[in-house]
Fold these 4 entries.
Entry 1:
Amino acid sequence: MLTPREQGDVGEMSAMCWLASRGATVAIPVGSSRNWDLLAELDVRVVRVQVKTSTCSVKDRWDVTLCTRGGNQSWNGLVKRLDSSRFDYLFVLVGDGRRWFIPAAQVAAGWHLRLGGPKYAEFEVERGDPIPGRTRTATPPLQSASDRRGDARAAKGTRL
């Protein structure tokens, strides 16, 4: 299982690869930027890109958290909502590798988005690599006891 920081790094790498495949020159900030994760020169225009990831799916949709709840031990309890005036595009990578590149003006929420339905379908781009690790679902599929244990014959090396 990836840490949140590692998952974010996977998302940023996916965004950089996708943007580069579109002919963009990509730059990342020195240190951490609170409002955007990378810059891209697209068609002689420099744009600020905020990157988000999600491994949480609910009924074939992906819940993407847009607000920040700290992330360190000195958190003061305030929740910071995503401010669409501080970035130009939102790039989202979800657990199965689906990706979206959404103009900031189209981001209708400050707390979270639900992707995979018709609302943001026009902004979905080519699928990338899935996020390594487990994808969480709101209602995990039921598993029989034998599925959880595995097959003893396979573990002992005998033919199935």
Entry 2:
Amino acid sequence: MRHPVRHTLALLATTLALGSTGLAHAQAQTPAPAVRTERTMSLDLANRIASATVAACSAGGYNVTAAVVDRAGQLRALHRADNAGPHTLGAAQAKAFTSASARNTTTAMMENAQKNPAAANVAQIPGFLLLGGGVPVKVGNDTIGAVGVGGAPGGHLDEHCAMTALDKVKDLLQ
């Protein structure tokens, strides 16, 4: 006849031994640290990007608003040119949010949604705007934010202004 206490202790010891082996194995396979370091842009950089974007569009005769958001899509800088329409504020911020969130240009997202019916519902995500003019701000492969532009007569022109501005600050994106 088995002794109930010894049997319970033996089962408990076996369970603990197997559990600790499994835990050790799981820990060995989890190289990701619990706390991460992420790059983020300064307010100064956000303002430089927004200012350069508005200047690039102004040089082309377009009155635009440029919004710069951080990696989480939160607004860091908003510059509105004289005579830019009131709708450009929301459009610029939505394009920047969309681009930062997806880590892609809004033009590429729009084209993908048009070609791929399964991707079309991405336009229904709250805050997303699938019109050209949103461009991610990258340091290497890391997206640290995005710039969104609204007000030029076409999303391709909005995007061109953003790309021109990012080219002007490329030495700061190290």
Entry 3:
Amino acid sequence: MTDKTTGSNPQINKLFRMNHSIILPLLPFFFLLHELEEILMVCPWIKKNSTAMHRRFPKFKPVIRKMEQMTTLKFAAIATEEFLIVSACTIVSIQTGNPAAWYCCLTAFGIHLIAHVAQFIVWRGYIPAITSTALCLPYCIWAIHETAPILSLNEQLFYTVLGTLLGGLNLIAMHMIMHRKPQS
């Protein structure tokens, strides 16, 4: 027999209710921790390393130029908007007992962290957010593992793709807004 809130059987849903009071609220905490490191470190790091980035990655010159235009205030605005989305999705999932919205954010965040690991490997040195990535990635792995019995493999894949696409589109939109020239 399935439960209407999660579509899983009642025993798994009981497990979700017991663990969700711990697992779900941790996502905004870890997300905020990661974003704070980025807010504090990205702009000074870009200023210090932009010449080396242009030299090492000439094909990415347009992206690097956009990064050079980013201010800490603009970066903080983007991070705040993303944090509000992650928090809202977490609250919705806690209130409804349906982990879908939270899982979309969790997996998108996990993929974002894996991208930072790849950047760290390519750069071969410190990049902003690698310290918090080392703290946040274990949480993401644990949370995905703990929620695996609640969602089918198809649901896990669907919510991962959906969360990553929506998160990516939101990030692009926010960067476009932040880089928009003021109208005179």
Entry 4:
Amino acid sequence: MSHLDTPKSFLLSLGFLVSVGFAPALETSAHAFGLGGGTSADVKSTQAIRDLYGNFVKAWNKHDVAAMSSRWAIDGDQVEPDGQVAKGRDEVTALLTRQHKGVFKKTTLALNVKTVWMISDSVALVDGTYELSGAELPDGTPIPARKGMLTSVLILEKDTWLIAASRLMVPTVLPYKSRAPASPADAAAPKQP
């Protein structure tokens, strides 16, 4: 009689085989978390997201609102540094149209994606910085360049990365804090051309 002839031995052996056979499937996939590593899919997604922002900057500098707003998911949103919210691609398009027919009609945007954190295969968190120059008041008075930070959540829909939520922020000095030095992660982040 073999050791597999008893129900208990059979079940223990089956349990061992199942656990060994399925263990790789139960492991969480490694994601890039912004500082390198990750799977080849993460690397490909990170590049696609960086390309999305590169194309967004090109569209901004051409003042091509349709090309800019096409980067948002249908239900994506944008929050401006002053708290103005545009919900949905149509409102984002309307916001960008007003901006580019008004104070931003002569602007130039420079944007640096510092970190792309792959949360999952279809969700990413982006941190970056931007500088917007060339803005003018309606009377032609120049507005100083705006330097800020952005955080966005992107989603993969039908093999295309789209902005689900974008938050712009203009840092301000808080009277109760000294200015913090750049983090080691910021120093190590790849520079975008």
